[in-house]
Amino acid sequence: MTREDYGRRIVSQSKIRKLGRNSYAVPSETIPNHEYVVRLGKVGWVCECPDHTEKKSVCKHIHAVFIIRKPKPHYIQYIQESQCSQCLDTKTISRGRSRYCKRCKIYYTPRRVRSRLGLDTITHGMNVFYGGNSLRKTCCTLTQRGINLTHACVLKWLSKYGNMIDEYTKTLKPRVGDHWRIDEVYMKVSGKSMYAFHMLDTETRYIIDSMVSEHKGRMT
Predict the structure, then answer these.
(1) % the chain with pLDDT above 70
(2) One-character DSSP codes across 143-178
(3) pTM for this structure?
């Protein structure tokens, strides 16, 4: 069983108390009459249990909180509904069934995503591909979940939603700490020696920036 499965078991067998706007008390399965506090911190959701504090993983208690929280609209659906039909700006205002763009000063009808496979399947397939797998390997992974499709279908998802998600993620502000570190990797590019530099946040391991340089001493 995965941590998410254990989280579902906690939700079905125990009662999770809401302490505040973004904090919850989740009962422990191993210690009787004990609760772990799960709250939203500066770097995301954190829990007091040893699994999270020692391994920095999304523990079963955090998964349980995710399950009971009111689900938000899928981000692919959100992007397509909020994007202006003219300038593609996502900072628009809802006006009933229509939306208003401040930049263009027009009303437009939001686009709807229609897919027989569902947005969760599309997102999972794109995550598998961007995780370093080929199109055919992505299809094999989806087949294990009972979803039969061709590699051309996955390629269609990438061309249809890839640029849209990329533009949207550029508008997001990551939550990083005050300590960053830079690491380099030596590699060959077309037979030429190069260095790939990555700047990461020390606590969250979030990649802040990346670049490739011919010199190790100066990143220019």
Answers:
(1) 82
(2) HTTT----HHHHHHHHHHHHHHHHHHHTT------S
(3) 0.39
Alpha-carbon distance of 145 to 181, in angstroms, equals 39
Range of the structural domain that residue 124 is part of = 113-171
Q: If we measure between CA atoms, which residue out of 68, 64, 42 comes closest to residue 51?
A: 64
What is the bridge-based pairing of β-strands 106-108 and 98-101? antiparallel
Is there a domain that residue 220 lies in? no
Helix (H, G, I), strand (E, B) or coil at 206: coil
Residue 52 has pLDDT above 50, yes or no: yes
Q: What are the start-end ranges of the E strands in the chain?
A: 17-20, 23-27, 35-41, 44-47, 92-95, 98-101, 106-108, 180-189, 192-201, 207-213
Residues 8 and 63 in one domain: yes
